[in-house]
Amino acid sequence: MAQEVRSRGLAFTPTPKILDRLQQRGAGQATLAAVRERMPVGTIEIQGPPGSQVAVDGTDHGTTDAQGRLVLPDLPVGAHRLVVNKPGYRPGDFKLTLAAREYKHLPVQLDWAGGFLTVRSEPPGASVEIAGLGQFKDGVSELQCPPGSYDITVARAGMKSETRSVAVVAGQHAAIEIHLMPDPQYFQEKLADARQHLSHGDAQGAIQISSELSSLEPNNPDVQSVLAAAYWRTHDPGHFESAAADAIRNGGSVTLNLAHEHLELSGEAIHPATLTITAKSIAYDPGGASCKYRAFVVPLGNVAMLEVTNKSAAGFMVVRHLAPGTFLLHLDFRDPAKPDKKMTLFFAIPDSRIERENNVGFLVSPSNSSQALGAVVDMIRRAK
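^ thats the sequence. predicted structure below, dont judge the formating
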């Protein structure tokens, strides 16, 4: 019979139903195969979630691959019902009609049968561990979760870790926000370490540690004060001014190492000194240097003159000479003890020096003295 079918053909178009009837009436496998060869067929390509089980007209036809693709060739023409299943998703039920030699694409979209979970954490950079689902960086958004209760642990170096539980319900969106607090012991140890780096002349090390602490607690005035001092020492006016403004705005102080310049009978002189600025006051300290001004603190409102200058000036029997490119910070204070008197101070940036040429002393500063002292002026004006 199979040979006759192949040599003579058929006077009808075979269908799956006809094949079933032939089999019920005793047709052998060779005959059924010969008849099946005469059936018009087509191909269906499925594109859906990876790992989905596909059944056509109640018969299993395999699973979609890692890219979500499955090709079903040699399907009989006519109407078909495809059912696509994947654990955690609602089944997809599709009906289609296939023509002879047709290649039909079927995109499959399955609906998630569980819930959704969003976890946000502050500050950035924290690790988020969801029991049973894995570990994530900086939280998750709309994570698909089977219904149930989940323990969520958020951790970050220098912060106190925190664990919370959240219930996820099918078809609903659960969201949780966790704000970590700094670990006080860790914070203080690192802050002391930053100050030690600064005192030993390692400004870059102080910046690195303080920047980490600033990411943990952005408005900490002690951290911003260390940052401002470190940026001042690295001759970075822009970052200095920003850190100094933050420190003062948050109730901290900024201490600057400067060179106090003044004219004496013996000629021009400079010595190390510090200015400490807060939102309310400004303090001068000559340290152990010989200076006509002792250490003092005055209200910030007593600053009568605030400018950056490159002008030479005459004192008693001597004249100040500034090398080209050298600038000074000029400050006038109203003396709290003597309101009708004023104190006038001039400051050069650190690393300034006096060089003599033709028996004349010239004050020489690094080339960026104008920008550096300008940043100090802007910082004090903001504070005022």
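The chain has eight helices and 23 strands.
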